[in-house]
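dumping the sequnces here before i forget
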Amino acid sequence: DAGVIQSPRHEVTEMGQEVTLRCKPISGHDYLFWYRQTMMRGLELLIYFNNNVPIDDSGMPEDRFSAKMPNASFSTLKIQPSEPRDSAVYFCASSLGSGKQFFGPGTRLTVL
Amino acid sequence: RKEVEQDPGPFNVPEGATVAFNCTYSNSASQSFFWYRQDCRKEPKLLMSVYSSGNEDGRFTAQLNRASQYISLLIRDSKLSDSATYLCVTGDDMRFGAGTRLTVKP
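..and the predicted 3d for all of it:
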């Protein structure tokens, strides 16, 4: 079975540009999570969805970040405008119920 | 105080050693706990759940101490392949610790 799929795997962009990260969760999973990982701050939960509905977005750093889940098999995380401090690895994870999470390979974002 | 705290290490141990990590959590209402393993430049992968009575999976033992609000991971007979960062997480609110880095040396 396919695991969590994320695209792109690497993204290099310039400050001020819009960035869209994509995630396809494991089929049948009802929870989807977006995380950001940096050396300084570790793994931070940004937002999570249950049955496509955002449940907790308190981790979203600011209004430049937005996330959507239009259906059970797709989610996006958008940063507009991007800033150099947004450079990080962004992980998407999914789970059945609120327990064990399965992570995608991540998107390594560099904002110049 | 951070919600989930771990000693960042690094822990450098010889092959065959026994090593233990602790992870403290602040949310006393937390009910579920997990240990994840993360290799360099890879995604975290579930290592094991932590049950109230403690549980074992081969060389790995996880324990929960609710009174002191910490969970632990014990690795026996360390292998070179155990070298990684180990992350604890409270499943209810998805708060990850910063991770403990382990290096097992020949």
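Chain B has a mean pLDDT of 92.
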